[in-house]
Task: inverse folding
């Protein structure tokens, strides 16, 4: 049976699932409820000098009928007095001594940092997370992402905290920066014990096209918010990978960004995260989603024979290369399983209009199953991605696996295109239809273009 | 199987005749429209006789452009709302939906269509601008699906239109002939009123065209005439006792039911003779009116019925039973019907043969004849030069022009009786035929 216990830089928790510092961790009530439901840890809603919030606060990106594929907020750090939060931290720790309670902090001066670190440690916090990521509201006051975007300032504040901290310190990174490893390296240089990422991405989730105001609307006006939810997971995964692979970062990672189910968690762990933090999914579906997450992870680990999280943490990292180290001799082409095809022809139109004109339709209108034109297929995957039927279009390997040649090797050998009309151009011998052929092609009824 | 109590109030009636395809809420339409795959050269379009750009209107619903969705629908089919409700979508667009190939429920295209059109009808949203007046006048006989579709298209082409309707309400079989759980009279009439408001054709009600003099006057006053008269009354069966009290045409029964609702007299033991869609409707409706037993009797086997299988299923679900391979010999009774005498048939390669000595009597107190509507042959003979085929259908060329060059036709009178959607499709093309005839222009 899989052992889900984790240890992130000395912060122990019964499983890798923590609640991120956000509205679900606003109070001891919520956190006790979450621990009772099965969550392993919680990062308390950021503590500091209490703020005053606006109404409304959240906006969402829906994709068709799927709600909150992306989510943003303009809420600030806690608006509750510190003493109330500290009392509740103590209560939670008394009741759940084995669960991880991490205090997220954001203050301005060195004195404030020293004071609040001591306060939360005295309350019983197992760790501290430095909120250097909030991209709205606080950064204008010189906190949050204003710190996270300045590695020198970030390092200085980490040093201040480490002067007094007895518990592990996690530095939370903002993604609103071009190279995530710069603040990550600064965190390490400052003595941080771990990093967590990503915080939210500066965003406008949409514009009310009748009132001419972005969402969320506050009395006819709006401001940029912080973007999160399933839509940001790919960005978060990439940044986690960048930090995990960089030799000068070398810190334990708590992964954040769009985690909603066990598979998301596995992906973060495979890219090097020790724990994951969840917010949007809980704001959408409640703490109850842990009922799917925990057994899902256990089943995966049991099936793979992984006894602990450490057994597979970072396991995908060696397989992430620079583009120039990928094998140019590897060749796949699409294959349509005719018995599964339902004849929607989305693959045809996607390839015809959006890729390489490598799918043909039957001349018999009663036969709606398209066919792959192998010699035109570049193996881009697009058809298999748009196909609505599971395992109907698969990508089949066509090379014999014996040859291996990368762009890097070709560059070293001087065997790469160098001029605009170089005969080494990769697409030179690919068949492309004549431009005017587009205008004479038979079109279905209603299609103008 | 449903068991219905005899309705005594309007509320009972409404409950028993609950719409087969209830109007979708905005939420339901949003979720349903989200499922559409947006197929290339979508099979649903090709399965629609009017060729509505279904994936586009569904996408428009999904993207909060319901006016646009309704316009897409009406662009192809002027009976958009009626068709959304009464079309045999299971056999047409929804039957062609690619989801059916993967055991996923097909998109509810009919209900989405009715959702979009209902919005613009009730908002009285003007979506079309009629054509520049040509000075030509066209008479349309009959305000049914064919007549109204032809009128709308003619107005788009700039011709003035007068519709002459024999009855007091428009919409033809939509008001007088389809099952009440498919489309209400209000829905049917509202759509025509919406179209009339937008297109400005005139409708003259209670103006039946009955003889040669009427036709000649129409010819004199107009530049072309469109015949959209549909079919006539239910044909007689030609067996003894057919005139007894309690025997009536299935279509006439549906008409009475649509207009009298729960006050329509229905027997407690009903026999429906026939295997077509109207017979199935009459059987379903008799069940919903609280008949104790409803029996469909058909000369051949179930696979040979003219009715769509889903219509037979609906009748069975409503409580009807079926007798196959039986031929009615006589309607029994002393003044009022008390039963039908049948004989069993054997079917040998489609050839029916009565089995001697197999006669039996099925007791009943009502007989509904689902034997099909007759053609209005006598009336059509009054048009000079009009040719009918052997089945009494008006003969046309590819422009829907009859053998009298001034007359055009479409719908049941021409096709022998199909669906509303066929009438809408043909009548639109007929309007273009008229346009070419009047102006010499292709469009």
Result:
């Amino acid at each position: 049976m899989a052992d889900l216990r984790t240890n992130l830089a000395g912060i122990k928790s019964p499983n890798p699932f923590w609640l991120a510092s956000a509205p679900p961790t606003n109070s001891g009530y919520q956190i006790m409820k979450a621990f009772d439901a099965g969550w392993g840890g919680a990062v308390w809603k950021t503590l500091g000098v209490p703020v005053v919030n606006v109404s409304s606060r959240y906006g969402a990106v829906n994709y068709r009928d799927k709600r909150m594929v992306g989510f943003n907020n303009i809420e600030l750090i806690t608006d509750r007095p510190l003493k109330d939060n500290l009392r509740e931290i103590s209560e939670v720790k008394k009741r759940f001594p084995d669960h991880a309670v991490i205090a997220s902090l954001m203050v301005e001066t060195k004195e404030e940092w020293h004071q609040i670190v001591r306060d939360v440690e005295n309350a019983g916090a197992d760790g501290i997370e430095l909120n250097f990521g909030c991209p709205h509201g606080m950064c204008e006051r010189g906190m949050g992402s204003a710190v996270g975007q300045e590695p020198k300032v970030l390092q200085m504040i980490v040093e201040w905290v480490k002067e007094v901290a007895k518990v592990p310190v996690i530095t939370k990174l903002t993604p609103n920066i071009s190279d995530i490893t710069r603040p990550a390296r600064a965190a390490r240089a400052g003595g941080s014990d771990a990093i967590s990422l990503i915080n939210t991405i500066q965003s406008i989730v949409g514009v009310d096209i009748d009132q001419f105001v972005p969402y969320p609307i506050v009395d006819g006006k709006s401001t940029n918010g912080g973007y999160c939810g399933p839509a940001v997971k790919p960005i978060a995964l990439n940044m986690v990978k960048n930090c995990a692979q960089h030799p000068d970062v070398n810190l334990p990672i708590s992964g954040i960004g769009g985690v909603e189910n066990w598979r998301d968690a596995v992906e973060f762990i495979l890219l090097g995260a020790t724990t994951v933090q969840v917010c949007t999914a809980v704001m959408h579906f409640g703490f109850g989603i842990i009922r799917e997450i925990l057994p899902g992870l256990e089943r995966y680990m049991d099936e793979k024979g992984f006894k602990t999280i450490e057994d597979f943490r970072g396991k995908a990292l060696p397989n992430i290369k620079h583009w120039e180290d990928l094998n140019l001799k590897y060749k796949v082409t699409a294959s349509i399983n005719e018995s599964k095809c339902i004849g929607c022809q989305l693959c045809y139109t996607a390839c015809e209009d959006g890729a390489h004109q490598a799918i043909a339709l039957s001349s018999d209108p009663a036969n709606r199953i398209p066919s792959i034109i192998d010699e035109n297929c570049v193996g881009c995957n697009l058809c298999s991605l748009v196909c609505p039927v599971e395992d109907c279009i698969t990508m089949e390997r066509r090379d014999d696996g014996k040859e291996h040649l990368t762009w890097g090797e070709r560059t070293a050998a001087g065997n790469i295109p160098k001029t605009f009309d170089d005969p080494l151009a990769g697409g030179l011998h690919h068949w492309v239809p004549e431009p005017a052929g587009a205008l004479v092609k038979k079109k279905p009824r209603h299609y103008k273009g | 199987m449903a068991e219905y109590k005899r309705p005594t109030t309007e509320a009972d009636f409404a409950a028993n005749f609950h719409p087969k395809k209830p109007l979708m809420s905005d939420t339901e339409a949003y979720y349903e429209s989200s499922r559409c795959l947006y197929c290339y050269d979508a099979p649903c379009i090709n399965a629609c006789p009017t060729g509505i750009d279904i994936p586009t209107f569904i996408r428009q619903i999904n993207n909060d452009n319901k006016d646009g969705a309704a316009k897409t629908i009406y662009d192809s089919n002027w009976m958009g709302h009626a068709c959304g409700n009464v079309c045999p979508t299971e056999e047409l667009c929804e039957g062609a939906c690619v989801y059916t190939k993967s055991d996923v429920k097909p998109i509810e295209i009919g209900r989405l269509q009715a959702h979009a059109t209902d919005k613009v009808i009730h908002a009285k949203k003007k979506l079309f601008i009629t054509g520049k007046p040509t000075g030509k006048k066209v008479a349309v006989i009959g305000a049914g699906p064919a007549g109204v579709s032809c009128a709308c298209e003619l107005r788009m082409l700039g011709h003035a239109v007068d519709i002459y309707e024999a009855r007091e309400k428009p919409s033809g079989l939509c008001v007088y002939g389809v099952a009440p759980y498919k489309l209400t009279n209000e829905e049917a009439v509202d759509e025509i009123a919406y179209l009339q408001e937008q297109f400005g054709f005139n409708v003259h009600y209670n103006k039946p065209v009955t003889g040669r003099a009427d036709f000649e006057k129409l010819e004199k006053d107009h530049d072309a005439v469109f015949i959209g008269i549909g079919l006539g009354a239910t044909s007689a069966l030609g067996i003894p006792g057919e005139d007894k009290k309690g025997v009536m045409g299935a279509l006439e029964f549906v008409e009475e039911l649509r207009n009298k609702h729960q006050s329509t007299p229905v027997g407690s033991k009903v026999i429906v003779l026939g295997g077509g869609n109207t017979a199935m409707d009459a059987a379903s409706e008799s069940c919903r009116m609280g008949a104790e037993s409803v029996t469909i009797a058909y000369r051949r086997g179930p696979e040979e019925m003219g009715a769509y299988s889903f219509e037979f299923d609906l009748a069975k679900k409503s409580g009807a039973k079926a007798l196959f391979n039986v031929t009615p010999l006589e309607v029994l009774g002393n003044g009022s019907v008390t039963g039908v005498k049948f004989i069993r048939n054997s079917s040998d390669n489609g050839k029916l043969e009565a089995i001697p000595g197999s006669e039996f009597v099925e007791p009943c107190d009502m007989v509904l004849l689902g034997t099909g509507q007759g053609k209005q042959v006598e009336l059509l003979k009054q048009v000079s030069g009009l040719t009918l085929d052997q089945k009494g259908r008006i003969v046309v060329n590819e422009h829907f022009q009859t053998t009298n060059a001034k007359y055009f036709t479409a719908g049941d009178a021409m096709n022998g009786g199909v669906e509303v959607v066929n009438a809408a499709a043909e009548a639109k093309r007929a309007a273009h035929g008229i346009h070419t005839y009047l102006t010499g222009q292709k469009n």
Q: What stands out?
A: Chain A touches chain B at residues 64-66, 340-346, 348-349, 368, 388-389, 444-447 (CB under 8 Å).
